Amino acid sequence: MEKTIKAELILENGARFKGNAFGYIKETVGEVVFTTSMTGYQETMTDPSFAGQIVTMTYPLVGNYGINLEDMESDRPYLKGFVVREKCDLPNNWRCEMELEGFLRQYKIMGLEGIDTRALTRCLRDNGTMKGIITTRVGDLTASQIKQKFDTYTNKDAVKEVTPKEKYVMSGSGTHLAVLDCGIKRGILRDLNKRGCKLTVFPAFTSAEEILDTNADALFLGNGPGNPKDIPEVIETVRKLIESGKPVLGICLGHQLISLALGCNTSRLKFGHHGGNHPVKDLNTKRVYITSQNHEFVVSDLSDDVEATFINVNDGSIEGIRHKSKPVYSIQFHPEAAPGPLDTQFLFDRFLKFIEEVK
Amino acid sequence: MPKDLSIKKVLVIGSGPIVIGQAAEFDYSGTQACRSLKEEGVEVVLVNSNPATIMTDIGMAHYTYIEPLTIDFIEKVIEKERPDSIIAGMGGQTGLNLSCELYDSGILDKYHVRVIGTSIESIKEGEDRDSFKKLMEKTNQPIVESEIVTDIESGIHFAEKIGYPVIVRPAYTLGGTGGGIAETEDELKEILSQGLHLSRVGQVLLEKSIKGWKEIEFEVMRDGAGNCITVCSMENVDPVGVHTGDSIVVAPAQTLSDREYQMLRSAAINIINSIEIKGGCNVQFALDPNSYNYAVIEINPRVSRSSALASKATGYPIAKVAAKIALGFNLDEIKNAVTGKTFACFEPVIDYVVLKIPRWPFDKFHSAKRTLGTKMMATGEVMAIGNSFEAALLKGVRSLEIGQYGLERKSSKIKSIDELKKSVQVPDDERIFDLAEMLRRDYRVEKVCQITGMDSFFVNKIKKIVDMEEELKELSLDKITESSLRYYKKKGFSDKAISKFIKCSPPDIYELRKKYNIIPSYKMVDTCAGEFEAVTPYYYSTYDEENEAVIKNNKKVMVIGSGPIRIGQGIEFDYCSVHSVMALKKAGIETIIVNNNPETVSTDFDTSDKLYFEPLTEEDVLNIVEIEKPDGVILQFGGQTAIKLANFFDEMNIPIYGTKPEQIDAAEDREKFDEILETLGIRRPKGKGVWSVEEGVKVANELTYPVLVRPSYVLGGQGMEITHNQEELVLYLTDAFSKDSKNPVLIDRYLCGREIEVDAICDGEDVYIPGIMEHLERAGVHSGDSISIYPPQNISDNIKEQIMDVTKKMAVALKVIGMINIQFIEYKGELNIIEVNPRSSRTVPYISKVTGVQVIDIATRVMLGEKLKDMGYGTMIAKESDVIAVKVPVFSTEKLPQVEVSLGPEMRSTGEVLGLGYTFENALYKGFKAAGMTIPKPGSTILATIRTKDHELFAKTAEKLSKLGLKFMATEGTAKTLKEHGISVQTVKKISEGIPNILDIIRSGVIDLVIDIPQKSNDVGSDSFKIRRGAVESSVSMITSIDTAEAMAEVIAAEINEDKLKLFDIGKDLNK
């Protein structure tokens, strides 16, 4: 038997899951979510959208192929905690450069392993996303300590945490996009850049004027963490960008911000969509695609001048919108995948064509 | 697009008899497809020659034909039923090939039958080697570079182009004989010249070596609108080189990063898109473990063994969905039957580890060459689900029923490290145990990976198990703590394994577990990793916290399945289990199935109310009983696998429906059995159990030769032989006692009489016999391997009376409640009993179908307490049918190098077919055809080599055939006798007499049928053996019993016109 440090995950509803601590061992609080992706734990961990969250992998064996320096979706993992059933100590892959545990330790992220992750998933499914604490003080925290920890947890500043400090440029000879980075994955930038796009990437709280000053062909909003309503100043920026008449495109959080700027509403899903197996239907062609998804919030209540372009086949939720007259187009899911299926890569081409047509 | 309303009547072709490479998985997929089509109001016409399947049950299709799977017969079915459509991909390679032939020959056009689902053009694009190559080029998919060469020079030229090492595969040699891997030009010259020589057509395939690459499979689905999903990825634990059917396979793929995974997934989708698959498709890849390089190995545009595995591993019903797609539905219009909410257009995610381990027939075929390669040898497989690789592997190993509960194996322990090192480099059925043993001896993981090509991820997992086994050895019952016991249980160790390592008894561990409340919790297979609620899930055990199995308090019965398909315990038992469940459901009882075979209908998600996908060991089944608390369990339908549990259940006070364990014992215990026979005055061949060679010789002398010898506990006639003289007997006994000195060997007088078999149902008072079956071959041929005839053609009413009388006496005396199977020999006008099995037998599906008696249904009701009389079965025996039904066994021996082919007391067949007709000859004609036998016609040549004893008998038969215009070739002795009878015959040289000898003649293809009646049934290495191997390996039909030969002569003499043979819809034309 292995020597272990006991730890437990305590949820808001009082549920407790006892396991072993790993990675960087320090008590942590976060919003607990699960993802059903069976591969791509590294991309998941480094996706800034998970900032402030404790992520549970439903697939039980994690770390099998280790960690490499290529598959990072940002400069570091931003999540608050990582929960797995079994971490792999002896990974193998030709690109493997680190082990899961060492990676978490380096970035000071608390891990919990050896719990019944399926029970946790079912708990979140039935009760909705909850806050949770991972602690090694198993059974020692008092009720008031726990309450206090939950009460002081907030993820309102998640975007501030993940957005770059300064603007930067990725060169390209094609379409010039101004990108508002609220925690955008490298995959999105990579896919655009690969198609020749020049990308001028701005911190999330850059003013509309400054962005418009670049005179880019179009404006692009990527994914990011948290509730879009927590960053009204960005929504306002987006509104101005739309008003400018330039094409505005978005993915994930970007899609939600655009929708809010267009007068639609957003609401919280019970336990989010996290995984690489979500069927999404193109309402125009009726084709269904398997997509990678990672969101807690969803666009609802479309305003009159907005129409849905994609819907989720499972729950009918809105997965894409366009403005009926303005050049605005956005989607909830992740065509860049990483991790997940590459079936909707063509959307990047559609984005660029869309910009081309407006020009 | 919604359903295509122009499709009204669909033809489904089954996969025929169970053979190696094509087993129960197609009963599962075919059954699912039929149900799926019927659900949509489409009429289904089914053709399948295999009577042992659920799919050929009356009512599964609207029109069911158990007829030979040849295009002539299928054309007759089409002509009669006039289906408007045909679905090609449900009957394995057989169904696919037949569909292509029907299309190519214009039959489909002629009758205006269109192909629904994947089109024939698409199928051909994937199947044909050349168009596959082109397709891969078109879609920019890499393949393994290969070329067919006919001379050494061009071989060397090609090898230079692709680079060494290259694989040399001679065309048309079995099991890769004459092939090899050439590392250098010199090696290539040597192997190539040998390969060219050995190949019948002088062709050799040269292929770039991708030895050590990972083998990854994807199951993909696509609908008519082009929507694509992947159901599951699978990774072979054995690298490229071992047939995927012979590999340990894990799902999902374990060692791929998302980038590698998505690269292959996208490739799979691009491929099926470009050939416009409409349904399911399997795509196999080889992936370089050191780069992004990969190659597409092959695609299978149909349901397959892998798709069955993927379905069971994920809960996604591939065949069902494929059938709906064929009808025009799109994936987003088909409900996910497991969740009831989501749609078929999504990708299943799993939150557990699935492992498939093949089950090989080497326990039956000791002489077989066990080396695994590119040709599949496994007869069946087990699937294990666990929440870790270790747990799944340990579950899988104990599901195999090979006496293993951990990775420590006796036969590996005795090997030296050098021997182990050598043996793991050549994959065989015991490699995993040898590999574990090496690791146990601290051999380096890295080096193991290097010499086996296995990924260190897997080797480290195996090492982890070995380490834990060694840790356990350091513990003792009084030292094992609650937390450590819980730890090992979580890791997947069974009580039996733990007790073995810490040296106590399994009940000790069981008690300890009870004390600490260490009990399994059951998790669902739900297609979605818990994201959605599931309605028809199934379960696997873990030692986790949350138990998801919802236990109801209503009346419920648990049916124990029969585990992996093996010779002697095949699909028939799955048929029985499924029927029992159907009967219980009808009675309003909740049904629970426990089984571990992913290929079967019994493990389909909607067969029973609840399915536990678990090993069929005492502990695993007991755990389920303890949580479910069923009113009782049914063991009679799961073959020996289930029956083996009887005594244990009895000890644990678990109610068993039907015959009590002590009665089962009485039938199996020689002395108790003899006592009963004596009391009842039933005759049986004289015999005795002996404990030494000397005693054996003495007993045999008293009985007079020939005598039948066998170990006392056997399944499927394992180790049974007929010895004709003292020399043979001594040889047998010496060998038997050296293998097992703790049990006696049974010696019986061998009666060369007519074998008769009955299946009967008994309620303790009355007996009901659906029908009496007569065996074509005389005693000495295992009942599973002989041709079986119903209704009997040569049995007098007097004997029938006796059979009924004895059956009743026997069943009542054994207090049978449920099924009993009795085998008799009629010898010199007297009825002898030779075997009694107080359980369901392999003839049950056959007899049920041909008599129309719902045997299992009645037996199940009887077991629950109903009386035969009250059900209206007071007549003792069902009315005999006017249609004659002949069951013909089918063998897979051509796939197993070095295995004996001739019929004998040891069972060798893997499957069976049925022939139906108004005359015996017509029925047998169909039976032979269905079994793939060539029926010689005037002008055909028969090669005969007959044991001296049967010369005269054979001469009479030959005379008849000669008059009909058949030609004969024979070895010297046989030829002499034939000439004496005035039959023209060409004498052929024996193997030792130079070229061309008998083997060359067989291989040359001029022979239509070989009749080889050997002196003894198992003489590996003899000339006679080589002749038989030569025949099966050259695909020449062969008969090895004089009785079969005579029957064949009768069929030939009947000069049957196939066009005039009647087809029987078994639902309408039988048992009117």
Q: Which runs of chain A of at least 5 residues are low in confidence (pLDDT < 50)? A: none
User: CATH first level of the largest domain in chain A: which class?
Assistant: Alpha Beta
- Low-confidence residue ranges of chain B: none
The side-by-side strand order for the widest beta sheet of chain A comes to 10-12-11-13-14-19-18-17-15-16
Report Rg of chain B: 29 Å
Q: How far from one another are the termini of chain A?
A: 66 Å
Characteristics:
heterodimer, A: alpha/beta, Glucose Oxidase, domain 1, Rossmann fold, 2 domains, ten-stranded mixed beta sheet, seven-stranded mixed β-barrel, globular, B: alpha/beta, 8 domains, seven-stranded antiparallel beta sheet
Briefly summarize what is shown.
Chain A is an alpha/beta fold and about 350 residues long. Chain A contains ten helices and 19 strands.
How would you describe this protein?
The complex is a heterodimer of chains A (359) and B (1072). Chain A is of the alpha/beta class and 359 residues long. Chain A has two domains: 6-155, Glucose Oxidase, domain 1, CATH 3.50.30; 159-358, Class I glutamine amidotransferase (GATase) domain (Rossmann fold). Chain A has helices spanning 41-45, 100-106, 117-127, 143-152, 158-162, 186-194, 208-213, 232-243, 253-261, 346-358, and strands spanning 6-11, 16-23, 28-35, 53-57, 61-62, 81-84, 86-87, 110-113, 130-135, 168-170, 176-181, 198-203, 218-221, 248-251, 265-282, 288-300, 306-312, 318-323, 328-331. Chain A has a ten-stranded mixed β-sheet with strand order 10-12-11-13-14-19-18-17-15-16, sandwiched between helices. A seven-stranded mixed barrel of chain A has the order 1-2-8-6-4-3-9. Chain A has a two-stranded parallel sheet with strand order 5-7. In chain A, helix 8 packs across helix 9. The N and C termini of chain A lie far apart (66 Å). The model of chain A has no long low-confidence stretch (mean pLDDT 96). In chain B, strand 19, helix 21 (571-586) and strand 20 form a beta-alpha-beta unit. The mean pLDDT of chain B is 93. The relative contact order of chain B is 0.08. Chain B is globular and about 75 Å long. Chain B has 1072 residues and is α/β, with parallel strands linked by helices. Chain B contains 38 helices and 39 strands. The chains are: A alpha/beta (359), B alpha/beta (1072). Chains A and B meet through helix 3, strand 15 and strand 16 of A and strand 11, helix 9, helix 17 and helix 18 of B.
